[in-house]
Amino acid sequence: MQLATHVRVAHNHLHLLVCIRTAASTMLAQWTMSDTAKFGRLATALLRVPVPWVFVLTYLAGVGIEAAFHKGQLFPNSELLTLVGAVIFIAGAGLAAWGWLIFWRARTTRVPGQSSTTLVTSGPYRLMRNPMYVGLSVAYIGEAAILHQIVPVLLLPLTIVYLNQVVIPVEEERLHSVFGAEYKRYQNDVRRWL
Fold first, then answer.
1. Residue 97: which residues within 8 A CB-CB, separation 6 or more?
2. Tell me: the pLDDT tens digits for 24-40?
């Protein structure tokens, strides 16, 4: 009975991945061949999955691994862990939303890999260059605490490495090409993460 449930869940996750891939491919169809040549085929292909979905997919992979190999929750009767997780989740989601809202108000892109029209340096961007990614990471940890799950947290560093090695370098290259010395000064003054 449990095997059938795991197979159904895996099938649903696979279906979700196919839907995400189709939507992302459509969304980024405007990328030109020069983008592919400049940033590499692998980086361009990886950027087709929106960053929030990378967090979701990593988390779901962790949930699947935990369900398959670990029976039971981490500290199953801890209401304190749930409460702390909720506070952490709200703080992270709030930071990510604040960063997104500032980009929206500046009428600049919120899609990794697309060229920005405005260099945003206000709000949380005074303290860190990537508050949306920091917020998503914090919310991810909060979600794991709410649900008392450990394996998704163990997979979070993979997402951070992906952001640092694939997504952020492409974004920074685009920002350098659009804003030049102004972005270089901002980059020297403000840390990438915290």
1. 135
2. 444 444 443 344 445 56
